[in-house]
Amino acid sequence: MVSWDIVIGLMIISFTLPFIFLRTQMRSTRLRIRNTSTELQHTQSMLHELEHHLQKDKSLFLEALGVPFLLLRPSGRIVMANTHAGQLLHVDSSYQMNLIRMLPESPLRRFITRAAATEEQMTETLRVPHYSNGESVYMATATPLGNKDRHIGIVFLDVTEEHKTQIIRRDFVANASHELRTPLTLIQGYLETLLEDPETAASPDQRERALQIMKKHADRMTRLVADMLTLSKVDASTAYLREENFDLCQLVEEVRLHLDSLLRNQEATLTIQLSTTPFPMRGDRFYWSQILFNLLENALKNNPDPGLHILLSAESAEDNGQLRLTVEDNGVGIPREALPFIFNRFYRADTSGKIKGTGLGLAIVRHAVEAHHGTITAASIPGLRTAFTITLPAPQTEA
Asked: 173 or 59: which carries more pLDDT confidence?
């Protein structure tokens, strides 16, 4: 006969073992869940880190473009934008705003509105005003990317300098054509008169007068063409500079000799004050002769009345090595409203037509100075003093 103790023991064991097994399984399951949770947290951390790196890499790539770039949704909301685009649009590029709603009415907003709605690439030239009353010109290109979200990429290329160059070339051609047309018309008219009118051709006085007028205007055209060639060379930057060492004292004397007859005819005086004799310089000697000649001739041509006094001075600063050259006179001066434009090509402050010239002299001076990495400024008190000051950043002598 089986003992009740054994039966009871077996019953206890039969009930206890499942609980022990279940407890073991639960403990094992909890451990696996804990390990899995740790792995998930680690994976999530890695995903977040990877996402951070990807976002950082995308931002670096967008910044490395060096031009404003936008990635938009068809609604006009920003997906991505670099800081260049934020500066152009005057918005926070990190905020995914809707540009169509947020930007004020402007050609830029109208372009973005059309770009967001288009399914084809479009390009447009945009003028973007500045707070400083200037403007920049951008070539904007919008390209649908064709992905499932129908994103649109927009790139803005700054073509301001190219646009300015086109305007300068257009104005230059127009002005040059106008300046050449007048003397050519006069020469052609007198030639036709001499060829078709026997009385004029037979008269020594009339023939002499016609020839003198034709020579005067031929000389004017020659000077204009020479100035245009000089300006075109200087305008092409320092590639045309032939640097050499020379003495400014000697160069000034040569320029003075060229202007000697004009100085005597106008009863004008030229005083030269150089801080050292000789005055060593380094640069393109020909262009420096153009600088000095045009500045001095400009003073003489704009002040034909007797008694003009011109002072040419130059000195080298001891503290920073800068060279400062000034040409000043006590003539009629330049009106304040004309000062910002006097270095423009073909610009003349005198609108009466009494003062002759090509209108290119000061433009040649400015470009020649800038080719030597210098700057030139003008200041004038009409009737008292007019001064042109050239500053060069470093000594122009070889070490």
From this structure: 173
